[in-house]
Amino acid sequence: MRKLIYILVISFFWACSPEELIKPYPCIDGSCGVIFEIDTLVSPNTYQDANGYWHVKYYGLNYFTIKGELDLLDPEYVINGVPLIETSFDSDYWIAIDSIRFTLPIYSVLSWFTNGDYNNPINVGDITYTLNDLSQNHPPLNIVGYQIQKNFCWECPYAETLLGTYSKYNYNPKQQIFLDNEMVGDTLKVMTKTIFNNDVGFSEIIENEFNIIID
């Protein structure tokens, strides 16, 4: 009977993985937390309204930045000073580029110069180039900065890691979000997913969502 009790006790501890019994909670203070916001230094006049929507002002072809502040990990999950932590960024907004037009200055071989050093030539005209049907060769761009290629392997086990952009092994993740004039008046979502301890063992996952209006 005593042997049976010993076997049951051993079986109970064996059912619980050693990591669950030994490894501490991922965050040092016993509770993992994140703070994400839009960087107002990069995007002036950005604000959050009473309904929780962020308003980003369009000032020309540029980007805005989402930045985060993450709780510290327990030393058990910091290897050689590198925290085992990551944040992924994704969005529901895609851009398909059909054509691009750009203008370049033309210079003469015997051009005039703005000074006697002959370092600053004066252009004698302009030439405009137009690239058409780009969408036929380039897949749509997600505004957080990634594309899904035509031969993307949806069934592959690593597929999820290719969707979105990542900031790893730091407590202050940042992501630049593309912004152009076609987005003015639109409402979009940017999603963040933070994994405290992205290695083996117990992990804490926190997801956030930004509802953003481009003014």
Question: Low-confidence spans: pLDDT under 50, at least 5 residues?
Answer: 1-16
CATH architecture term of the largest domain: Sandwich
Strand order of the largest sheet: 2-3-16-15-7-13
CATH T-level fold name of the largest domain: Immunoglobulin-like
Report the principal-axis shape: elongated
Radius of gyration: 26 Å
Distance between the termini: 75 Å
Tell me the count of domains.
2
Q: By helix and strand content, what is the structural category?
A: mainly beta
The amount of helix comes to under 10%
Mean pLDDT, rounded to whole units?
81
Helix segment tally: 2
Order of helices and strands: HHEEEEEEEEEEEEEEEE
For the secondary structure, the number of strands is: 16
Beta-strand content bin: 35-45%
Report the sheet with the most strands, covering strand number, pairing sense and barrel closure: 6 strands, mixed
Name of the CATH class of the largest domain: Mainly Beta
Explain how this protein is built:
The protein is mainly beta and 215 residues long. It has 2 domains: 34-95 and 141-215, Immunoglobulin-like (Sandwich), CATH 2.60.40.2950; 99-132, no CATH class. 17% of the residues are buried. A hairpin with a 5-residue loop joins strand 2 and strand 3. The chain contains 2 helices and 16 strands. It is elongated, with a radius of gyration of 26 Å. The strands form 5 sheets. It has a 6-stranded mixed sheet with strand order 2-3-16-15-7-13, with no helix packed on it. It has a 3-stranded antiparallel sheet with strand order 1-4-14, with no helix packed on it.
